[in-house]
Amino acid sequence: MRIVVTGGAGFIGSHLTDRLIEEGHAVSIVDDLSTGKKKNVNPKAEFYKLDILSPKLERVFKKERPEVVIHHAAQMDVRRSVADPLFDGQVNILGTLNVLEQAVKAGTKRVIFASSGGAIYGDQEVFPATEQHPTRPLSPYGISKLAGEHYLYYYFRTYGLQSSILRYGNVYGPRQDPFGEAGVVAIFALKLLQNEQPIINGNGKQTRDYICVEDVVEANMAVLNGGLNDTFNVGTGRETSVNQLFRVLADAIGSPGKERYGPERRGEQVRSCLDATKLSKASDWEARVSVADGLKRTVDYFRQTMDPR
């Protein structure tokens, strides 16, 4: 298939692009490299350095005529969304609308959309949360991702554009950027490897559903190959606290580091955990990488690339 991956030079998008090319698909990448890296771009993919807000996106879609668009380009930092909701909305809402408009014009059949189970549910009432859990996001990031889901429904009802919505847990793994505010695993891992002190926000008891990027890629392949047009959580169903995460990373690195705490961050949930039973029943997908194994792989990656800027 001809597939456009937005954000294909980024953390998740680049892993997914590699997998798609491995399966024989013709892949084009749209990425402005604001957070993605040129070194992540698969040489067998057609690369367009372009912002998804750009009017030039129409030329890309006219040329490539993708059958499927996998939309990962986003402002993905919860904290930045709180500090600058306008920027978050421009990228995640207006940028997504531009992608969907061009997809319709180019005759695209399906969109696979990277949403956020870790942000759109807000303060969970049940653990783990199913896809039917109320959506009450606590951050502009969660709001903008939920808006993207609603726009997909509109484009389906109006234009027949099929879509799969994947609500990710907290994704981690090799190629994650340790130099921003997002990606606690990468940030902690690199600091510990460099004998620096990571700062844990709040009391460290807040939990997340940490899922390895390898499992996230396979979730995308499952909905793509299965022609699944629905909304699915992508998580492990297990909670890990920030304190536990720190300890596992410190032990894996052999660091004697002790926990050090800073102020709580606005817009962050206390607990988050996803029930991915629906996707498992609809396909042969399941989260196969344990947190311990996934963190070890991530540490090994950063050991090999100590200055991944």
Structural descriptors:
41% helix, 11 helices, alpha/beta, Rossmann fold, UDP-galactose 4-epimerase, domain 1, two-stranded parallel ribbon
Describe, in plain words, how this protein is organized in 3D.
With 309 residues, the protein is an alpha/beta fold. It folds into 2 domains: 2-171 and 210-234, NAD(P)-binding Rossmann-like Domain (Rossmann fold), CATH 3.40.50; 173-208 and 238-304, UDP-galactose 4-epimerase, domain 1 (Alpha-Beta Complex), CATH 3.90.25.10. The chain contains 11 helices and 13 strands. Strands 3-2-1-4-5-6-11 form a 7-stranded parallel sheet, sandwiched between helices. Strands 7-10 form a two-stranded parallel sheet. Strands 8-13 form a two-stranded parallel sheet. Helix 1 (11-22) packs across helix 8 (213-226), helix 2 packs parallel to helix 4 and helix 4 (85-105) packs parallel to helix 6. The longest helix has 21 residues, at 85-105. The two termini are 33 Å apart. The model has no long low-confidence stretch (mean pLDDT 95).
